[in-house]
Amino acid sequence: MKRLSRQVADAGSLDTLLGLEGTAAHYYFSNLSGMLKAEDEAESPTFDFTTRNRRPPRDPVNALLSFGYSLLARDLTITCHVVGFDPFIGFYHQPRFGRPALALDLMEGFRPLIVDSAVITAINTRMVTRDDFIQVGPSVALTPKGRKRFITAYEQRMEALVTHPIFGYRVNYRRVLEIQARLLARVVTGELPRYPGFETR
């Protein structure tokens, strides 16, 4: 991952950057299962995760990830409007009808910090269980009860406090989203030379 991050700075095209992101995502998700624990042996197959899949998600972990990413995209779309951005005009994600490209751009750095963390917590603390999912053909989705339970885990993570690496004060993740969007606005207006990504450590 460190090697790939160094290569990003030299990516000469969007296609090259997409390729690097895809490789990094492969490495990342291939190790995600090591952070998930099963309550007992019978529970293991339910939250057995091997690779990222979507449209439709084909297992409970991917169903949680997809739902969580949709919640985060919604929140960042709202944040873009608050800051004064058009959320449908992005940089990395290219414009496509109905897709909030800028919200998705801003979301990249927060997927693991907010959504993936909420998914791991929801599974490991049994906030969601096998009974919170339904399967229709190859597709797996959360039940209404399961969605409510995961939203609770997601909102708890959004309210978690973290020290902002630039300003040094503690804020919750929901506030961090707005701070990062406002920092991007300062880059667009020329007040900052580059966008300072958010890192917790």
* CATH architecture label name of the largest domain: Up-down Bundle
Largest sheet: spatial strand order: 1-2
The value of Rg in angstroms is 18 Å
Strand content: 5-15%
- Can you tell me the overall shape? globular
Structural class, by secondary structure, is mainly alpha
| Uncertain stretches | none
Q: Tell me the number of strands.
A: 4
> What's the CATH C level of the largest domain?
Mainly Alpha
What is the CA–CA distance across the termini?
Answer: 15 Å
Q: Could you say what the CATH topology of the largest domain is called?
A: Four Helix Bundle (Hemerythrin (Met), subunit A)
State mean pLDDT (0 to 100 scale).
87
CATH superfamily caption of the largest domain:
CRISPR-associated endonuclease Cas1, C-terminal domain
Helicity range? 40-55%
